[in-house]
Q: What sequence folds into this?
């Protein structure tokens, strides 16, 4: 018996492989466990802990063992490594925040006052919108405003 818990990275790799081999979409998995699409995908990639029930449902669906379920329940070290940051899709999000982040900060302060948008009390949504010039990716960040209190 191994005394260590499988790493989130190893569990995520097994989840991704099992999902692809079974021909399941992320949305089908999210629907199966009754959780939001983006949150579910992020959790299965190691960024959120799942409940015991969620981890067991996913592992039954994907025919994965208890070691993966245990890892899915563990607290994560959130963030990503530098190699991941160079992925073109992820880098475009970094680029968008580099270009629009200062303007969004100013707009938050203008509309709400001195404070920040929470990334803990937070929802994110993803959608595809058809467009004659090419389908649009729509990502919505929905965070609670947290005012600075002195």
A:
């Amino acid at each position: 018996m191994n005394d260590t818990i499988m790493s989130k990275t190893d569990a995520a790799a097994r989840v991704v492989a099992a999902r692809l081999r079974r021909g399941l979409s992320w949305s089908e998995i999210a629907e199966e466990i009754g959780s939001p699409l983006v949150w579910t995908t992020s959790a299965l990639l190691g960024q959120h802990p799942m409940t015991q029930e969620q981890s067991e449902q996913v592992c039954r669906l994907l025919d994965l063992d208890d070691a993966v379920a245990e890892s899915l329940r563990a607290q994560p070290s959130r963030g990503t490594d530098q190699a991941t940051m160079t992925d073109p899709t992820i880098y475009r999000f970094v680029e968008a925040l580099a270009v629009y982040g200062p303007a969004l900060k100013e707009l938050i302060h203008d509309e709400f006052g001195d404070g920040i948008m929470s990334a803990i009390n937070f929802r994110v949504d993803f959608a595809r919108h058809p467009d004659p010039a090419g389908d649009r990716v729509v990502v919505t960040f929905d965070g609670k405003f947290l005012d600075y209190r002195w």
